[in-house]
Specification:
Length: 359
């Protein structure tokens, strides 16, 4: 019985062992499947890892490329910044030059306006010179005509007539022109506009070379041969259209082609005509002054009716030497008081201050 029990126990143990073995086999198969799955996952993970490594390498390469590009762009940016700064400085310089050019253009415009004004003034002066030359030529022609016709009065009238404007005024005005150079203070930093004015367009010729008044028109006397001259007399440096023909010397009268000097009666040393000589008169006596306590002198009588329009000095000539003028002179001497009947009232009422010395 014991053996059967042991056999049963052994069978039960064997069955347990077999069941355990089956379980272990099942577990082993499960583990093998898990191992296969893990190996497959491992392979896949490796593939992913390789891919990720490749991506990392690519990213690193891209990063390096981006870094290189950034450095290149930074270098280009620095170069562009330098160029921009240079352009800005050049722009500032150009702006300053433009401002200077504008100032110089304004100055040159003002100088051009002044030059045009001066040119117009000189054209006006040139017209005056031409008019003056015309007047001189007309005067010379009139003098030639008068000399040919022996017209002394016409010659005197021409000599007295003045030519306007005087030549001295025109010469003084012409000397005052262009006293200052409008282009003297030009800027040397303006080569683009000043190089055109370096050459003088009038260097080879004088625009006023043919001016009729440039030479001395009175250097030769056009009338020197028309009248006789005296070699012994002093030579005059001033302009004399007739030379020394019209002289007040008696010896020159004979050399006068007209037979006499119409101006010989005038004194050369007297610039004004002399007055006719007067007769010597005794000085009038001093009037007797009134005494102290005496009555004041009576007033002169009023003029009579009908004598308002009578001029007491109408027939009186204060410069006449005749008896009539002296008789009508209220300021004549006391010796002629008997001829002054019509002024007795005025003479009797006039105060006599000669008695002041006796007081």
């Amino acid at each position: 019985m014991k053996i059967e029990q042991e056999a049963l126990q052994q069978e039960s143990i064997t069955k347990l062992k077999q069941s355990e073995i089956k379980n272990l086999q099942n577990e082993s198969e499960t583990l093998q499947q898990m191992i296969k799955q893990l190996e497959a996952q491992k392979i896949e993970a490796r593939k992913r890892l390789d891919e990720m490594s490749a991506q990392v390498d690519n990213l690193r390469q891209q990063v390096e490329e981006q870094k290189e590009k950034i450095e290149t762009q930074e270098n280009e940016l620095s170069v562009k910044q330098k160029e921009l700064n240079e352009l800005k400085s050049e722009e500032n310089q150009l702006q300053s030059k433009v401002d200077n050019y504008k100032k110089e253009i304004s100055t040159m415009s003002t100088n051009l306006t002044n030059s045009q004004l001066q040119i117009s003034q000189h054209k006006t002066k040139l017209m005056h010179y031409e008019e003056y030359e015309k007047q001189l030529n007309d005067g010379i022609n009139e003098l030639d005509t008068a000399l040919n016709n022996n017209d002394i009065q016409r010659i005197s009238h021409i000599l007295i007539t003045s030519i306007t404007p005087p030549l001295s005024d025109l010469i003084n005005d012409s000397n005052n022109g262009f006293t200052t150079d409008p282009f003297k203070d030009k800027d040397a930093t303006f080569p683009s506009l000043t190089h055109e004015f370096t050459a003088d367009p009038f260097a080879g010729e004088d625009p006023f070379d043919g001016e009729p008044l440039a030479n001395d028109m009175f250097a030769s006397d056009p009338f020197g041969s028309s009248f006789g001259t005296s070699d012994s007399g002093p030579k005059s440096t001033a302009f004399d259209a007739f030379g020394s023909a019209f002289s007040n010397k008696p010896s020159d009268v004979g050399a006068d082609p007209f037979g006499g000097d119409p101006f010989s009666s005038m004194k050369a040393e007297s610039p004004t005509p002399e007055l006719p000589p007067k007769k010597s008169k005794a000085p009038p006596p001093r009037p007797v002054p009134p005494k102290h306590g005496s009555k004041p002198p009576p007033r002169p009588a009023p003029p009579q009716a009908g004598s308002e329009n009578v001029d007491p000095f109408k027939q009186a000539d204060p410069w006449s030497s005749s008896a009539t003028g002296v008789a009508n002179d209220p300021f004549a001497s006391a010796a002629n008081t008997e001829q002054q009947n019509q002024f007795d009232a005025f003479d009797s009422n006039f105060a006599d201050f000669s008695q002041f010395d006796k007081v």
